[in-house]
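Note to self: user wants both folds in one dump. Writing first protein now.
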Amino acid sequence: MRAKRDWIMPLLAALVVACVGWWADWQLSQVMQEELTDDLQNMLGADVTALEIWMANQKRIAAMLAEEPRLRTLAVELLSKGGARATDQMALTVLTRQLLIGDRLRARLSSLGYTVAQFVNTNFEVVLDSGRRRSRMGTPVPDDLQPRYAELFASGEPIIITPFRMQAPEITAWPQGGVGPGRLRGLGRLGPGPRLGGAFSTNAAAAPRELTVMQVAAPLKDTNGVTRGALALIINPDAEFTRILSIARSGQSGETFAFDPEGVMISKSRFEEQLKSWGLVAGQPGASSALTLHLTDPGGDLTRGFQLGDTNAYRPLIEMVQRALNGSTGVEVNPFRDYRGVPVIGAWMWLPHYGFGVGTKLDA
């Protein structure tokens, strides 16, 4: 009996030590998960806050410009006489010159950090584009942008239009730091701060390519407070929208990105060159992940040699994007694959007022 007790006691002691060790490991794991959760939430919160402040500031600037008495008077008269059914071309020419030259619109836009303004009437027609030598009189706003303008006309409040595509200007080169008299053709959505110059320069001999742009639009109201149209300012999203999303980016793997209701990235990936080498970003020269990359799980780690196979095959959206599109806001510290197939942890949030989601991730 004594021999039996001598055998049981060490076993019980070992069991107690094992239980204490397991409990300590579990406690440490919980603390680490809580710290990771806090870090991810703080990163996401900082980026979303910075983005919301920037978007609010863009709307404030556009509204201030649209409310300036002289510009508003000229713009409202132009909107009332312009459009596809305009008949008095002489009057329209005079109004256009007064706006662009007499009111120094281009210079004022440049001083605010923009280069192109468009005037849109309530029939969803662009009646003037300040970046063109010839008016875009009567050019319709693309169908998928019209609901946003309808929202502006109904509410009388400024709006932000998230990134969309437009064709590059048909000019030989844009001066560094600005579009100057460039001609922006055919807006079409597929998927300022700073100026559109520099990185957007193109060669007239090359085929027109698409640019990714944003807009901020403010209502143009008559003296009775009735909205007669909109002033829309074009923004380069790579220079501000994408950059602001990296305010709280962590290390070599941390990334915050924005995506639309279809799970398509609308900001630019920090892994752009890798994505191009894997064939996930293709198309015209200068193609970007913004509005091109579907945030799907490739099924394996592409950075470790996993072969994607048929790039057109169905693949599910990555977990954090699926959850955001289902309306949830949350954090996941159990690793899942990102759009590169790399195990990551992440946090996400859907911004219903703006119609897009934001996610933050770190390599696990």
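First done. Writing the second protein, which came from a different request thread.
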Amino acid sequence: MFRTKTGAAGLSVLSNTLLILLKLVAGILSGSVSIIAEAIHSGIDLLAALIAFVCLRIAGRPADREHPFGHGKVENVSGTIEAVLIFVAAIFIIYEAINRIIAGAIVEYLSMGIAVMAISVAVNIIVSRHLLRVARDSDSIALEADARHLTADVYTSLGVLVGLVVVQVTGLNILDPIIAIGVSLFILRAAYKLTRKAFPPLIDIRLPEDEEALIESTMSEHMGELVGFHELRTRKAGSERYIELHMIMARDASVERAHSLCDHLEEDIKSRLPNTHVTIHVEPCDMECDTCPDSCPEDQKMPGP
């Protein structure tokens, strides 16, 4: 049940809901701003999980008349919205923590807060590892974003846990809002990294260099059958990759031969890059060669820019 993308997102929703309730109760009763910050952090994780759950269901729909390229970019929209929400939450926590430092902070019922944070760490370790595994198997940016949130929650929860133990031992209540600020900085870092990954596909940025190199390598392996290729264009929407290129064939090549080679190349690329859609435009070579393409000049064989 929890091994599919939507099932894993549903598990994240359930675990985050329970942890938020625990943290809010502990934070309010103890007066700990660091625990309340963690509750807000988990609240953002819950919202992210809900967004991921909905967006993954939409992104999984097949292409239709209104969306001929599918719905994959919904995942990137999800990740970008989550990043903005994280930025807002972090700024709010910093504001509240500074107010506590100025006004003075008193923390009570520390044992309860420590127990809640320990439970949070254990649950998020289990759930985040499962989400990352499913995200990698399905190449889902939305699910990966959700998993990264929970992973960040593990570290921030550990920081709060250690801080509460120190406060209990030393009685230095001012450490509580200071820890909350530290949690916020960690959250801001996670938001920045998520923005860098989720937003670029919305403006059709090219695939990573190593993936484009793999495409070029696949094409180059068939240079004995084709003359050259150029106009390589790539982009990504959610987990779906889109590749377009122009392939140069010998002038006397039949339509059947060109079509067969295109099919073969498309399958080769798809076997190396999953979730890929390849479009190849065939062009005739503008050179006259009796033994084309074997006698083709070296610069004609190499792919263009």
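Dump finished. Worth passing along: The CA atoms of residues 28 and 36 lie 7 Å apart.
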